[in-house]
Amino acid sequence: MREDCNFRGDHWASVAGTIVLTVTLGLYIVGFFSGSWAYGVLVSSEVSVEVNLGLWTVCGCEVRTDGLNICTCTSIEEGHLGITLEVWHNAVRIFAAVSLSLLVFAMVTTFIFICWKPRPKMRVMTIVLVIAAGSLSLASIIVFPVKLLEDKSPINWTLGYSYVLVVFATGACLLMLAPLFIIGHVRTLVVKDKQEQ
To answer: What is the pTM of this model?
Structure first.
């Protein structure tokens, strides 16, 4: 087993893909766990409530006319502020969680093929994992706003920063990572074929 990573032994696209994958995974983790996939305000005669909705939590801050603000965060399962866990929300959570898991596995396979076993199977596995992660994440970022905005809630929703981070990570998977790893895989095979001749 080699002790150091041989970045020079791989095509530039594979190395660039590894760097982009690291950034993408970081963005996805922050977007996945932070609590602002959507932001909204519920206004009544006595109080205004600012609401942040994430995949796992809902936070509300009551902004009162007397200047006393009361903020609470709870799990969505508890039904805080009348927001309950809908079937579609659970599906988005599952898509996003599986997508995150696939990105973590892609990171592992990337470091395996760069550092220890530069085999074509590992590169192909990384490509498949990245495309699958991007596809599942794409499903979650499409379903979330469509279902949220068709809900007849009195809250006027706006998509939040967590959602935007996941959108960027999804775009990076499908529009940057998959092409970079495919180019790196093909070019590495071409270079090795030329070396063997």
So the answer is: 0.84
